[in-house]
Amino acid sequence: MTNNLLNSGASSLDSEQVDAKAQPSSTQDLNPFVGNSQTKRRQSATSGSKVHSKVQQLQETLERHQHERQLIILQDFPDPDALSSAWAYQLIAQQYNIQCDIVYAGTLSHQENIALVKLTGLPAKRWSVETTKNQDLSVYQGYVLIDNQGTTTQLLPIVTEANIPLIAIFDHHTSQGELKAEFIDLRPQARATATLLTHYLQAGLLQLDSSISEHIKCATALMHGVRSDTNMLMQAQEEDFLAAGYLSRFYDSQLLNAILKTSRSRRVMDVIERSLKYRILQDNFSMAGVGYLRYEDRDAIPQAADFLVTEENVHTAVVYGIVYDEDQELEVVIGSLRTNKLTLDPDEFIKEAFGQDSHGRFFGGGRMMAGGFEIPTGFLSSFNDKSEYAKLKWEVFDTQVKQKLLRLVNPQDTVI
After folding, report:
1. How far is it, in rounded angstroms, from Cα 32 to Cα 269?
2. Are 169 and 219 in contact (CB under 8 A)?
3. 96 with 62: CB under 8 angstroms?
4. Whose CA is closest to 320, among 344, 337, 338?
5. How far is 91 from 146, CA to CA, in rounded Å?
6. What span, in angstroms and rounded, lies between the C-alpha atoms of 213 and 248?
7. 289: which of 172, 173, 398, 413 fits an S-S bond (Cβ 3.0–4.6 Å)?
8. What's this model's pTM, rounded to 2 decimal places?
9. CA gap 4, 249 in Å, rounded
10. Dmax of the chain from CA atoms?
């Protein structure tokens, strides 16, 4: 399983920019490779100090909270990156006698996510909003956000109201500037949060042991997290490759293969069929509204977008629908974007298309070649059994989403 070409050690926690004011020497002018080599050595030394600083900061933070109990809060619909990173943090925290519970408010609907949790025994629990409100939260002395910054979880207002302090944030997305924590590791240059947590394993906060089953399964989950968020490593950066190289010493390739070979459910196939039926094509964009989906089928939307973007002469696909939960009277418009166009920035595109809420929070964002958005239905929220009313409501949101997308796709013709 070991790939010696990848096992080249830890990478930096932060990328450094070369000082623009530094003037090259005459030797550098004559031989640019000399200058590049010297620059890389300077960058390596600076990055190395940052690695040590971050590791030391996390270690000191964990030491301050020894013998405590913490909540690890994931986004409502956690992916392999979030799930595996949370497990890694839980195992690291155990070294400091910190007990952690991994929770999420939504559901696992993607077949690979379900298989990941079941086949590895990954200790994540679903806490609905009502369940969380009925929990005795006083037993927790802090909470940690992993692969999110609080904007994609329904649990944040509840733990905030319970006055539970925020201990740490780990995320590979840009800062949303909303929360303050004792320890923050935000690395937009990394393609996966699993990369961040793997670096702390490499640094020795937990020594992975290939004779321990739990370590093997966690390493397998982390490998899946890195793989899934880097499009099978095709969009990986250097530190992602280095993290994968380290994990290759411990992960179980047969277990990972079993997770990846999980079949799509019939409900997912139905949503993909709907996306094909209702898609509209314009300027190499494919847009499809798939109507109403049950809360537990939410992950069918990104899978449909993955499928539509493979169509000939299509470089970008957006699929969206109204996701509802009758028990919690929850309704939200959820969409996913996939693109093969290198000059299209999903984060910028989605933020410009859908804007911000009244608190200044964007309704969505993205990373390289992928993005997503969630928009509350507001006054029109709550599920209604009357089919005519539901149809009218869907037409309103379908038209509005298309209008906002087409405004960017084809600015000369923005009215539907």
Report:
1. 54
2. no
3. yes
4. 337
5. 14
6. 15
7. 398
8. 0.69
9. 9
10. 79
Mean pLDDT over the full length of the chain: 85
Please list the residues that pair with 101 across neighbouring strands: 71
Return the bridge partners of 99, or none. Answer: 69
| C-alpha span between 146 and 267 (Å, rounded) | 29
pLDDT at 206 over 80: yes
Closest CA to 196 of 182, 184, 214: 184
What 32-36 contacts at long range (C-beta under 8 Å, 24+ apart), as own/partner pairs, is none
CA distances from 122 to 96, 132, 365 (A): 20, 20, 28
Q: Which residues, 6+ apart, have CB-to-CB distance to 287 below 8 Å? A: 279, 280, 317, 318, 319, 402, 405, 406
- Predicted confidence (pLDDT) per residue in 77-89, tens digit: 899 999 999 999 9
| CA gap 333, 275 in Å, rounded | 15
Could you tell me the two tokens for 384?
Answer: 């209604």
Strands 370-376, 69-73: parallel, antiparallel or unpaired by DSSP? unpaired
- Residue-level pLDDT at 7: 36
Amino acid occupying residue 280:
I
HEC string of the chain equals CCCCCCCCCCCCCCCCCCCCCCCCCHHHHHCHHHHHHHHHHHHHHHHHHHHHHHHHHHHHHHHHCCCCEEEEECCCCCCHHHHHHHHHHHHHHHCCCCEEEEEECCCCCCHHHHHHHHHHCCCEEECCHHHHHCCCHHHCCEEEEECCCCCCCCCHHHHHHCCCCEEEEEECCCCCCCCCCCEEEECCCCCCHHHHHHHHHHCCCCCCCCCCHHHHHHHHHHHHHHHHHCCCCCCCCHHHHHHHHHHCCCCCHHHHHHHHCCCCCHHHHHHHHHHHHHCEEECCEEEEEEEEEEHHHCCHHHHHHHHHCCCCCCCEEEEEEEEEECCCCEEEEEEEEEECCCCCCHHHHHHHHHCECCCCCECEEEECCEEEEEEECHHHCCCCCCHHHHHHHHHHHHHHHHHHHHHHHCCCCCCC
Question: Measured between alpha carbons, how far is 308 from 1 in angstroms, rounded to an integer?
Answer: 34
* Contact status, residue 74 vs residue 63, Cβ threshold 8 Å: no
| Residue 116 · residue 259 · CB < 8 Å | yes
Q: Which amino acid is at 351?
A: K
